[in-house]
Write a structure and sequence with these properties.
The protein is of the alpha/beta class. It folds into two domains: 201 residues, Medium-chain alcohol dehydrogenases, catalytic domain (Quinone Oxidoreductase, Chain A, domain 1, Alpha-Beta Complex); 135 residues, NAD(P)-binding Rossmann-like Domain (Rossmann fold), CATH 3.40.50.720. It is built from 13 helices and 15 strands. The strands form three sheets. Strands 3, 4, 5, 6, 7, 14 and 15 form a seven-stranded mixed β-sheet that branches. Helix 10 links the parallel strand 12 and strand 13. Helix 5 crosses helix 6. Belongs to the zinc-containing alcohol dehydrogenase family. This is Zinc-dependent alcohol dehydrogenase family protein. Keywords: Metal-binding, Oxidoreductase, Zinc. Its cofactor is Zn(2+).
Length: 346
């Protein structure tokens, strides 16, 4: 089969590789029908995730059809159409029993495209298939389902739930890429009074407005001052960091009111300064996290019921064989306007 292979920082190629095979009784081999690229994949290519070794097939967001299952798999069978979660769960360890699947101690967690071969390929082996894939209802299309592999549960769990968004809150979302837009979409479920998006890209600010942001600002438009104008000088109740840069993290800590919450979702490839000398006296709460995907079944039901509209996330579409071109478009998002790219087998 063909697959997108990481060959070290800055190096990747669309290579011929062996088809995956079952290795453990709980495995499933799944044909990849649709797949996308994540900002985390770009972090890997920059060298920000040293655990990823050269030779690894990248990718952790896909929809596919089950081809073969191990003898202990009971919840899916060959022919089933499934969502492949970005997080794999053994289902038995302490953290899995607490629904903290991202911290799985039994061989799961974020492993696809990280510690084992991922989904940017013709086929993929998924361990712990019973607890790591989700059968898809007929009314949910492949492209829509892709948004539930990572960005929707990540933004919802790490950003919105981590930031404890409540009705009437003022929420600032720093970064209006796919994760930031997903945070805006899912924050709306809690009826905040204002959602303020901050991003340097005009196209992404417009996308933020379409997803429900009341105000979209460029960094040069004095976001700190504008947020205070809207909050009687206090600041936002919640700031969601959706970029992964020191400057955007520090901006979030300046945007919030005393007693406010900063939910860091972005993947940071280097250190950021935490100004505890300013924050400690303001009763600020800071949360971080890797998604657990415990919300995926709920989000999937909402998507099937028409309660979540993810149609605006995918901006570019390619056949699977044009993976390299899709990467180039996604990497140059400031020029191409790309949000999510979708690659399909047909």
């Amino acid at each position: 089969m063909k697959a997108l292979v990481f060959h070290g920082p800055g190096k990747r190629s669309w290579d011929e590789v062996p088809d995956p095979k079952l290795q453990d009784p709980g495995d499933a081999v799944i044909r990849v029908d649709a797949v996308t690229i994540c900002g985390t994949d770009l972090h890997i290519l920059k060298g920000d995730v040293p655990a990823v070794e050269p030779g690894r097939i990248l990718g952790h967001e896909a929809v596919g059809t089950v081809q073969e299952v191990g003898p202990s798999v009971t919840t899916v069978r060959p022919g089933d159409r499934v969502l492949i979660s970005c997080i794999t769960a053994c289902g038995r360890c302490r953290f899995c029993r607490e629904s903290a699947y991202g911290q799985c101690l039994g061989g799961g967690g974020w492993i696809l495209g990280h510690r084992i071969d991922g989904v940017q390929a013709g086929y993929v082996r998924v361990p712990f298939a019973d607890t790591s894939v989700h059968p898809l209802p007929q009314e949910v299309g492949d492209e829509a389902a892709l948004m539930l592999a990572d960005i929707l549960p990540t933004a919802y769990e790490v950003g919105v739930l981590g930031g404890r968004v409540t009705p009437g809150d003022v929420v600032a979302v720093v970064g209006a890429g796919p994760i930031g837009l997903a945070a805006i979409l899912t924050a709306r479920l809690f009826a905040p009074s204002r959602i303020i998006a901050i991003d340097p890209s005009g196209a992404r600010r417009e996308a933020a407005r379409r997803q429900g942001a009341h105000i979209a600002l460029a960094p040069g438009e004095n976001p700190e001052g504008r947020v205070r104008e809207l909050t009687e000088g206090l600041g936002a109740d919640v700031a969601i960091e959706a970029v992964g840069l020191p400057g955007t993290f520090e901006l979030c800590t300046r945007l919030i009111r005393p007693g406010g919450r900063v939910a860091n979702v972005g993947v940071h490839g280097g250190p950021a300064t935490l100004h505890l000398e300013e924050l400690w006296i303001r009763n600020v709460t800071l949360t971080t996290g890797l998604v657990d995907t415990h919300s995926t079944p709920t989000l999937l039901r909402m998507l099937a019921a028409g309660q979540l509209d993810v149609s605006g996330f995918t901006t570019h579409r390619f056949p699977l064989g044009r993976m390299e071109e899709a990467y180039e478009v996604f990497e140059q998002a400031s020029k191409t306007g790309a949000l999510k790219v979708a690659l399909s087998r047909t």
